[in-house]
């Protein structure tokens, strides 16, 4: 279960800040680029550093600073930056055959056979795409084709992409999408253990109430044309929100009893991120349709829609092919990523790192009054900051400050308002994981002194 040895395994080398970041070269280059390049993410706006290279769990900027990566390029470089086997597989494919539309190739054949082997249950029908949003949209088309129904149900604070269909499923709001969601899209609450909507007499979350609400909602608020529930197993953009362990088994049973399909958007949570190929495996639930992405190609733009065997032929009626989906480079990246996870026992490694992290974060909660909740499943982690533990009022100002302070100390990671999100590569050593958490601990302490 040892982490792969590389330059990023040397605790003494990272992080290493030689110029207070963002340094002068970063500022100058960022200003030049953003003269033309617009629409940046929140994390870049909060800390506009310019990266030039990466290896394993480290990143380097143009000013010579070295950072410990707790983001994996926003959940993408799950195996670390430039893993030799993945990089070599992509290079070999690029020198052999870059694209031949959706014709069969040897590498595609090897990939689909491998996918059928590692995925749970009868998830053995596949199509490939180049982004998570595109995979989600294709999944919606499969659901409609498989059921001959149109309505979709998703959950508050889920994130499913930035196309009209993805936005209609999720919490993204913008006037550019119009004043309403797409017709037939519904949203319902989902269980949040830290902020439950319904509780039992003993104060614990009552998942049965959520299922009862879904039954009532479908009866009263839909036109009884529901094709599927679509959910993230763990909410990423929403703040690493973990469901109670009994929720998905109950939702699976509810969907089966009501002839509704279940789609898991595992773009963020799959391929070892939580310690399983699919996060849904933690609850022994097999979805009917799954969107797989981000770490699937360890940085190469490749995603997948996987469906259970009874619904494989639905791909035939949805115009499933795409210009870039399943090209040889993409298939090579995905197949190499699977092989690395198997060869290096990285599912077990991810689970181990999650267990180590939750123990360290529990101590942060004991030490810092503004830490309201901590959570981790594999290498998907979160720390929720609050102004008051009794009221659980979100502490957005603290979240922003902790993010910037830790980044300035050499920790590259992800902001989410009052929730600190962490997704370190699953190849990380114990020592580097703990070092990164120590940096966060220090940043929280400094923030408390300034704001509390």
Automatic annotation (TrEMBL):
Signal peptide: none annotated. It comes from marine sediment metagenome. Transmembrane segments: none annotated. Keywords: Pyridoxal phosphate. Pfam families: Aminotran_3 (PF00202). Residues 1-26 are annotated as: Disordered. GO terms for molecular function: pyridoxal phosphate binding; transaminase activity. Residues 1-11 have a biased composition (Polar residues). The keyword Nuclease does not apply. The keyword Cytoplasm does not apply. CDD domains: OAT_like. Belongs to the class-III pyridoxal-phosphate-dependent aminotransferase family. InterPro entries: Aminotrans_3, PyrdxlP-dep_Trfase, PyrdxlP-dep_Trfase_major, PyrdxlP-dep_Trfase_small. This is Uncharacterized protein. GO terms for cellular component: mitochondrion.
